[in-house]
Design goal:
alpha+beta, 4-stranded antiparallel beta sheet
Length: 440
Amino acid sequence: MGYRKISQLCAASADLTSGQDHALTIASHEDELLGKISEIEKSLAALSTQKIQLVDLKKSISDELDLLRASRAHSHKHGAVHPYRRLPMKEEASMTVNLGEHRSVFLMITSTKENIGALYEVKFKYGAKVDDMDGRAVLEPVVKFPCFNECARIFSRSRVYVFTEDACVKSFDTKTRELDPSVPSTLELKPSGTFVSAYDRLYFLEEASPFVADPLPSFAKYNSDENDWERMPEFPIRYPYPMRVTGYAVCYGLILYTLIDGHENFDVVAFHVGGMNWIRVEIDTCDYTPFRGRAVVVGKTIYALDLFQVDEIIAFSLKMNKRVDGSIAYTLIKLCKLDGLKIASPPCPFDGLESDYFVHLGNQDFFHVKTGTNYEFYKVQHICITTFQIFVREDGIHMIKTLHSAVLPMDIEACGQFMLTFSFTPECEDYEPIEGAECS
């Protein structure tokens, strides 16, 4: 082989080796870049976690500041109480009475697409960690109610009663899990209205008609022992615009209703169960906020959910004054908004139709449940469950002590996305102060 040929072969071999080295260099550089991308992704994930932690920390600090400012403002108004001194709580010894007990709370929900109601049961250990909440991965309905409208429970019994859109009453026993057949109404009643349990009886107040010429809303009482209805004195007040009931409380022989119209005009009226008559209730404060759902009565205080704000609990009192003619004048007084309720966040924020409810578990113990829709989840809807206690400090400020909060998924394949309608625990009767009990 000639020298020239050998030179050409050596050059070709060198080019091939150089190409292979270049390819290896590129591959190595690609691996290096992929490694850097992986490190960046890990850093971003860590930053995201830190951001969430910082947001939670900011919220916690903001809550602490709000409580401190409220304490300071109240101190300046009512006396020289040092804002940093921990004020003792009334009945502090009873604050841990129910901790660790196994509890059961039933949630009544309404489908957002169809007129279907369903009852779910949440079992948990009071004040416990999330692992001690219900052992199932996804909560499933205990029973479904087609044609659902309103529901209530007589608090001395284990049954929940459902008023359907065809004006029938169904009942379900939470102990035996038996569903009784529908009982048609013996009275002609509109299908829409407010179904209330009060003093071992059920009451139904029709929804006001949008037509002024229509008769005033009917009011009726249902005797579950006899499966019979009794017509009561009709609602006596005609408003310029139709009013709807947003919430109610049962106390001192009264069923107290809060009402609002489309222009955010509101009113408070009461039905006197013993006297069988309706009473106008005065509102004491200019910053009165209507409440929703069934209020909880504890001692002399009425606790209820703010009509306009999810997660907000308001304290009220009902004042009674005897008039010259011997009749009683009732005044509803807004005491304060309660601070301290800290609710766990769902996997993805709720993007609409938020609703909540809260239940008295006895003593100073309470259960709050919140939900909302999120279209990223098709088979489950998350609920936020929080156990807490309410106490009154020596300076009169009502406060919440959050014990534990957790998020649970609920199966929605059976009835679709839903809103919370009602909630109760079979282990605790509702406190319904009788007439003559001191309320202020």
